[in-house]
Amino acid sequence: MKKRKSNRTRLVGVRLTLDEYARLEDKCSKTTCRALSEFVRHLIFNRPVTVIERNDSFDKAVLELTRLRKGLTEIGNNFNQSVKRLHTFNQVLELRDWIANYESERMLLFAVLYEIKRQTDKIADQYLQ
Q1: Packing angle of the helix pair 92-128, 56-86 (nearest 10 deg)
Q2: In angstroms, rounded to a whole number, what is the distance separating the alpha carbons of residues 75 and 68?
Q3: Which of 34, 61, 73, 102 has a Cα-to-Cα distance from 27 of 20 to 30 A?
Q4: Is the pTM of this model over 0.85?
Q5: What are phi and psi of 51, to 5 degrees?
C-alpha cells in the first residue's frame, strides 16, 4: 500500500520571544530536519529527531585542510604554467631563468607540504586522545 501524501492546509501560530525563537532555531539547526516546520512537527507528534553531533576540533581541522588544499592548487597551477613555458624556450639563458624560478617554487611547495604534514599530525594526535 502506498502512503497517500496530503497537502497541509491548516496553520498553527505560536508567539515566541526573540530568545525563545533563537533557541528553537538553534536546536533545529543541530538536526537533520530541513525546515523549522518539519522540526516542530517532529516534536509535536513525538517522532524521533535525529540530532547531529558536531566535533568542534574536527570542524577546525577541516577548515585548515581546506586552506592548505587551496594553497596546493595554486602551487600546482604555477608549476603547470612553468612547465608549459619550459617547452617554449629556445635559448640557454631562458632555461637558467626558469630553473631559478623553479627552485623558488619548489621551496614554496616543500613549505606547504611540511605545513600539511604538521597539521595532519596535529589532527591525528587530537583524534587519538
Answers
A1: 170
A2: 11
A3: 61
A4: no
A5: -100, 135
| 46 secondary structure, DSSP code | T
Neighbours of 28 (CB within 10 A): 19
Task: Look up cell 629556445; give the residue.
Answer: 90
| Amino acid code (one letter) for 80 | N
Count of residues in the chain = 129
Strand-pairing partners, residue 31, are 51
Q: What is the pLDDT along the chain (129 residues), one digit of tens a residue?
A: 566 777 888 888 899 999 999 999 998 988 888 899 999 999 998 888 888 776 777 777 777 877 887 887 888 788 778 777 777 777 777 777 777 777 888 788 888 888 888 887 777 777 666
- Cα(first)–Cα(last) distance of the chain, in Å? 50
